[in-house]
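Let's sit down with a protein and look at its sequence and fold side by side. Once you have written the record down, we can walk along the chain together.
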Amino acid sequence: MLTENRDETRERIIDAALKRFTYYGASKTTMNEIAEDLHCSKASLYYYFPDKQALHVAVLEKAGETYFHDLQEKADQAVTARQAFMELIATRHEFARRFCRLELFKVLKDKHLVRIANKAFEAARDREIGIITNIIEKGVDRGEMVSADPAKVAALYMHAMIGLRLSLVSKDLSEEISDEEFERVREWQVQLADIFINSLKK
């Protein structure tokens, strides 16, 4: 790792942590295990990240980049607004299933982590609202929809979707969500999307 520049080393650490977190779960992974995977000392990890929580946030941001790349790609490929909305739901569902062991809900429970990640969470929310806004604007341009304020509608839709995602989380923000619960949320999101789309039709 000594021959790499700082950015390359930091990315290697994040990639190693992402691999471990995805397979074993973030809470069950130790900094020692990540260091062993990289054949370096634990002190080397702390040179780049002050604690495991900071590394956890960096891993979530890394996974988020994959998520947003997929969202944008699906939105760009869709030929109708409804197709775009449905593709976004499918992408969210796939992402949640693939990266459920990153323990996002536990991050939201941890006040220290929330303070660290607050700006990243806000940026992610705004980025997704921007993608949804663009879908609505394209729908308006194609004559599929009518909306005087696509950004406002997109924000409302986004917050409603977040509410559905959180509805299955227990009071202690447990990360154990069954396949049936994942599917139930997906079905609710499809129904909600159809309600929004129909309300915007000409």
Notes: The radius of gyration is 19 Å. The chain is about 75% helix and 0% strand. The chain has a mean pLDDT of 86.
